[in-house]
Amino acid sequence: MGFKVGLLGLGTVGTGTAQILLNPAGRHPLLSAVEIHRVGVRSLGKPRQLQLPASMMTTNLESIVTDPDIDIVVELLGGLEPARSLILQAIKRGKQVVTANKAVLARYGDEIFSAAHGVGVYVLFEGAVGGGIPVIQPLKQSLGANRIISVLGIVNGTTNYILTEMSAKGTGFDEVLAQAQALGYAEADPTADVDGLDAADKIAILAAIAFGGRIKREEIFCEGIRRVSAADINYAAKLGFAIKLLAIAQRSSRNGGEALQVRVHPTLVPSNHPLASINGVCNAILVAGDPLGQVMFFGPGAGAGATASAVVSDILNLVSLLGAIALKP
């Protein structure tokens, strides 16, 4: 039984995803059952690292989500629109959906998951947080027996790279930001990263899974790293701390009851804490639960290979689920 994929977006992650699907040798055997059927892009004339047959490409993005031959729609366009509308159209048409779009999920997750539940399809999103680090599925399944106490971590590789370089070399924020942009670690407009907005999207998603409720993205306290100086980092080191931009979701006692705090800000992390040694563009998420205690997920938090790995893992999960359903008597 074969499964046809409609891919929306052929940027960095889309290209990485397509390369894996087109080269299944030595990977999970279920990948041989997956075929890229159509690819939707905004421009056909854009130079691309991966050349696909012209017959496979289209700028009519809506035709991907309405194509009756497509079983799984993989949304890797990024941004809020048209990504949100296309995901909802795909769901309405009974398509399974895979996305790595943290911004859409953080703001419209309720709408998307309610729509999916209503028609009985899946929306999987392992690639939305932590790049290639498996954290979404473990939170949903492997740690399901635990009462989660806190989820905190370094979930933005750009800011972690900047803080690491400032710490190692004693250079200022502006100089290291320019270096990160030259290396491709930071965008030309770095606002989402350095102001903590990207991290806030990600902790909204993690908190919703870990604590089983709706997180209002607009209510998350968010402070970035623009005001962190080399002197701050130096003073912190002398006192036995590293400065990290942490995304934090934790239960706390308030007025005799419990409240959930969700926030993003630069944090003094004791030098012997597991997160203090996470450097460069790597991500790490530390989960504390009862009865497990602490467990940490660590690895590459961005890039074509890392995020594509997570996207394809979601595709494989769907193929496994759909295949099992098809085989039921």
Question: Layout of helices and strands, plus pairs?
Answer:
Blueprint: E1 3-8, H1 12-22, E2 34-40, E3 57-58, H2 61-66, E4 72-75, H3 83-92, E5 96-99, H4 102-119, E6 123-124, H5 136-142, E7 147-154, H6 157-169, H7 173-182, H8 191-194, H9 197-211, E8 221-222, H10 230-238, E9 241-254, E10 257-270, E11 282-290, E12 293-300, H11 304-327
Parallel strand pairs: 1-2, 1-4, 2-3, 4-5, 5-6, 8-10
Antiparallel strand pairs: 7-9, 7-11, 9-10, 11-12
Helix pairs in contact: 1-11, 3-4, 4-9, 6-7
CATH class of the largest domain: Alpha Beta
* Overall mean pLDDT: 93
Supply the CATH superfamily name of the largest domain: Dihydrodipicolinate Reductase, domain 2
- What is the gyration radius calculated from CA atoms? 20 Å
Percent of residues in helical segments? 25-40%
Shape: globular
Major sheet: arrangement of strands:
3-2-1-4-5-6
| Tally of individual domains | 2
The CATH architecture classification of the largest domain is 2-Layer Sandwich
What characterizes the major β-sheet?
A: 6 strands, parallel
What can you tell me about this protein's structure?
Helix content is 39%, strand content 24%. The protein is α/β, with parallel strands linked by helices and 329 residues long. It has two domains: 3-132 and 305-327, NAD(P)-binding Rossmann-like Domain (Rossmann fold), CATH 3.40.50; 136-299, 2-Layer Sandwich (Dihydrodipicolinate Reductase, domain 2). The longest helix has 24 residues, at 304-327.
